[in-house]
Design brief:
By secondary structure, the chain is an alpha/beta fold. Helices cover 60% and strands 8% of the residues. It contains 30 helices and seven strands. Strands 2, 3, 4, 5, 6 and 7 form a six-stranded mixed β-sheet that branches. About 15% of the residues have low confidence.
């Protein structure tokens, strides 16, 4: 149960902070309490793992994947050790500094800083933000430029005084500043292009337009920048940056509202984006851009909170409409790719659509990031990591990219690299409790409980704050569990849960399951059973309602089934779980771990051990380690088995 809390955190974190071409993704609670949280990557199962799974369910076939082991050179002299230490120190320093990811800044590179809102009505700030975003969108289609994403430029104010420093942090040679003044249906846009190294103005202009002609400003600015930076535009790029999505000012206004809030964290953001996009397409049913953004958020809702046929139909209809209206649009292809990714888990078709999107918008960091996630789920983790680095080069101050990259390194058990990457994220979002919790988990995975405790100490968290606090809370409970301080963990839950407000039924079910696990670890089965029964009822009800992700419910249920001694339900639920995740090589190993845990609870070593043997060489977000096998009480029924004892041994370099 404990790893489920952790898993839940990572899933929800990915949910609540995500932006579908919004800000992106981690995964729910991850406690090594499988109950409280999963994180998220995986590779194809090895042949041994395939046999283990086949022994449970012959109907499912898994492709084999042999893990390559990196050769480690022997260092025999002190000088070599010093060189290695210096190299590692340099690498860590480089990762932690908020500087460009390339040694040479390309001349044809630009960052568009937030536009100043000069309207008398300060509520028009969304409009200036939207104009900035639309100019960025047009520039992102020019392959001969390097264009920094809005998520990174939003860290700065309009017209800052330290342009050379900002340009260096973003890895660009030029900065575009601007202001927007809106009065009634008239808009004035001022822009100036600045060479950052000398802080000199290369070009400036003022545009006065009616709202119905605002697209011409965005196009003219993009063309002028391309001319000034001597960027070559293809015929297709000229057409795409001049495209007019709507002639309806009210529809455009609603869409700009959606653009402004889509990068904000939290599920309320998704609700508002859906509302504004819905308003835009209601006013102009041919507004392809609005349909595309609506499709992305509908797919997000389906994956995260509304796993129903009705929601699936909404997401599909919006994506198909966007693509029908604008078959050459990067956004439309991205929307269709996201639909295949989140709603159908059809990763091959998702990759096809997302590659088209990146071809049409080569500077869109989100396109590279989504392709990276698809590759990760296809078991191509090295390719995924490379693509995440490419995304970071275009969006260097997006902590979510670094967070996900750290999770990828964690999933491949590259713990030092993972921690350095999380440190990089912390330079952007200092003291972010979610990132600190992820870093702490890397120490737990290596068995260094004291190092994890130092990170978690003093962090205040209750189960109420799902996005951040639950991750910390799950790790804190996990630490107590691994130290076998069961009474302290129970006391913490008893104190914290009554103070929490608005806990979802899913979180309550997870807490019930984990509480039962703590009593079971104390061998107090009489107290444990009511908690397991309540958790089982809640999880089954939620699964039937389709109110949240199927995988999370199924993973939690297999452990509850085992705790209650319900072998028939266990076999039914693990059969469904493994079948549902079989094609997802980042999710599948985590599902297999939950099945292994369930059979360990049942003292069924013959079912659990082959799975564990395979999982120790599989890549996934919370990849199991020998240290976790030694620490987690869930494996206690297997401890006297020599085969299990061998798995607990650390591999020598």
């Amino acid at each position: 149960m404990q790893r489920y809390l952790v898993a839940f955190f990572l899933f929800f974190l990915a949910t609540a902070r995500r932006s579908i071409f919004f800000r992106r993704r981690a995964r729910f609670l991850t406690l090594s309490l499988p109950w409280l949280c999963p994180i998220g990557v995986n590779t194809r199962p090895s042949s041994a793992g395939s046999k283990a799974i086949s022994s449970l369910h012959l109907k499912f076939r898994f492709q084999s994947h042999s893990a390559a082991s990196a050769a480690r050179p022997l260092i025999g002299v002190v000088a070599a050790l010093l060189v290695l230490a210096a190299t590692v120190a340099t690498l860590v320093w480089f990762l932690r500094r908020p500087a460009p990811l390339v040694s040479t800044i390309p001349e044809k590179s630009i960052a568009v800083l937030p536009f100043e809102n000069r309207s008398e009505d300060k509520a028009n700030a969304y409009f200036s933000d939207g104009i900035q975003n639309e100019i960025l969108t047009r520039l992102s289609k020019i392959a001969d430029l390097k264009v920094i994403s809005r998520t990174s430029t939003q860290h700065y104010q309009s017209a800052p005084t330290n342009l050379p420093e900002i340009a260096n942090q973003l890895g660009v040679a030029h900065i575009l500043e601007g202001s927007v003044q809106k009065s009634g249906d008239v808009v004035r846009v001022n822009v100036q292009l600045i060479k950052a190294a000398t802080d000199s103005h290369l070009w400036a202009d003022t545009f006065d337009r009616k709202l119905t002609d605002i697209f011409s400003v965005e196009t003219d600015v993009a063309k002028a920048i391309a001319d000034q930076l001597r960027a070559k535009l293809t015929g297709r790029e000229k057409i795409e940056i001049a495209a007019v999505s709507t002639r309806n000012p009210e529809a455009y206004d609603a869409f700009l509202h959606a653009l402004t809030i889509r990068h904000r964290p939290g599920l309320e953001r998704a609700e508002k984006v859906r509302d504004f996009c819905g308003r835009a397409v209601e006013l102009d049913s041919n507004y392809a851009e609005a349909w595309a953004l609506l499709a992305m958020v509908e797919a997000e809702f389906y994956y995260d909170t509304d796993h129903t046929r009705t929601q699936l139909t909404r997401a599909r209809a919006a994506a198909e409409t966007a693509l029908r209206l604008a078959p050459e649009s990067a956004d439309a292809h991205a929307a269709m790719g996201i639909f295949f990714y989140y709603c159908l888990q059809d990763f091959d078709r998702a990759l096809t659509e997302l590659n088209v999107a990146r071809e049409h918008a080569p500077n869109d960091a989100n396109a590279s990031l989504f392709i990276a996630w698809v590759k990760r789920r296809q078991g191509k983790l090295d390719e995924s990591i490379d693509l995440q680095h490419q995304a970071a080069a275009l969006d260097p101050l997006n902590e979510d990219i670094w967070r996900n990259l750290g999770i990828s390194y964690r999933g491949s058990r590259q713990f030092d690299q993972a921690r350095a990457t999380f440190d990089r994220a912390l330079t952007i979002a200092p003291n972010d409790p979610g990132i600190i919790a992820l870093k702490a988990e890397t120490f737990l995975a290596e068995g260094d409980l004291d190092a994890a405790a130092r990170l978690l100490e003093g962090l205040e968290a209750t189960p109420n704050d799902i996005v951040y606090a639950t991750s910390v809370y799950a790790r804190q409970l996990e630490l107590l569990l691994y130290r076998r301080q069961f009474d302290q963990a129970l006391a913490k839950i008893a104190t914290d849960v009554p103070r929490a407000k608005n806990l979802s039924p899913f979180v309550i079910a997870l807490i019930d399951g984990f509480t039962g696990s703590l009593h079971a670890a104390k061998e107090d089965l009489a107290r444990a059973r009511p908690f397991f029964l309540q958790a089982q009822r809640q999880l089954r009800a939620l699964r039937e309602q389709g109110n949240a992700g199927f995988f999370l419910h199924a993973e939690a249920l297999v452990e509850v089934d085992a705790r209650l001694g319900d072998r028939e339900a266990l076999e039914r639920d693990d059969f469904a779980l493994l079948g549902a995740t079989a094609k997802d090589y980042w999710q599948s190993p985590r599902s297999q771990e939950f099945v292994a845990r369930a059979y360990a609870i049942k003292s069924d070593a013959d079912q659990a051990l082959p799975l564990l043997n395979h999982l120790l060489t599989s890549n996934y977000d919370t990849a199991i380690t020998p240290a976790l096998l030694r620490l987690d009480p869930v494996w206690d029924p297997l401890r006297n088995d020599p085969r299990f004892q061998k798995l607990c041994e650390e591999k020598k370099p």
